[in-house]
Write a structure and sequence with these properties.
Blueprint: E1 2-6, E2 12-18, H1 21-45, H2 51-57, E3 59-63, E4 69-73, H3 78-83, E5 85-88, E6 102-105, H4 107-111, H5 116-121, E7 124-129, E8 132-137, E9 149-155, E10 157-160, H6 169-187
Antiparallel strand pairs: 1-2, 2-4, 3-4, 5-10, 6-9, 7-8, 8-9
Length: about 190
């Protein structure tokens, strides 16, 4: 029996197998689990506080109607991180807030990974000057001594570099081979 990956969509693996029908389903489930495990480990290896853990927990494998297995992530930006591309404001689609600009954190906002709501919740009153969103500590805003701090750079669009995390090519084939070996151990040498 042979397991064939179809990598036509980045961030998704579709596995199909050739061979005896009775063993194909079980083999594909084990291989799908092995690819899922490789994707989860790869996402978690990226580190970070929350984002990559969320991507890792969204990875799953599901059988298809034509007898294959699909392995992918349900996180809304997992595929975009895999391939990269342009992000523009105002956004379209689910999760878009219809903002006029993207906010790119600077200084303390970058260190603490704030969005504008978190900056305001941390006591900053925000104001815009050209393409920068500044913040002053609330309560000091009317005092001349209150220092304005640049918190966010405002842009209409940015280009997100690809940050591949889903196994492709050799890494995908290694995960499939591991699944085949596991299946062979469990089934006594078949296929």
């Amino acid at each position: 029996m042979q397991v064939i990956p179809d990598s036509s969509s980045p961030g998704i693996a579709v596995l199909k197998a050739l061979g005896a029908r009775e063993h194909v389903r079980k083999l594909l489930l084990v291989c799908g689990q092995a690819v899922e495990n490789a994707a989860v480990l790869s996402a978690r290896a990226k580190g970070g506080r929350r984002f990559w853990a969320d991507v890792a927990s969204s990875v799953s494998h599901q059988p298809t109607l034509d007898g294959g297995i699909v392995v992918g992530a349900s996180h809304r930006v997992a595929g975009f991180k895999q391939t990269g591309g342009r992000i523009s404001a105002p956004g379209k689609g689910p999760g878009s807030l219809g903002r006029k600009a993207l906010t790119i954190p600077l200084g303390i906002a970058r260190e603490k990974r704030w969005d504008t709501d978190q900056a305001e919740a941390s006591g900053y009153s925000l104001f815009r000057d050209k393409d920068i969103l500044f913040g002053r500590k609330a309560g000091k805003a009317k005092k001349a001594s209150a220092k304005a701090v640049p918190l966010f750079l405002l842009r209409k669009s940015v280009f997100q570099k690809p940050d591949p995390w889903f196994p492709e090519g050799e890494a995908l084939q290694r995960a499939i081979d591991k699944g085949v070996r596991l299946y062979q151990q469990r089934s006594g040498g078949i296929p």
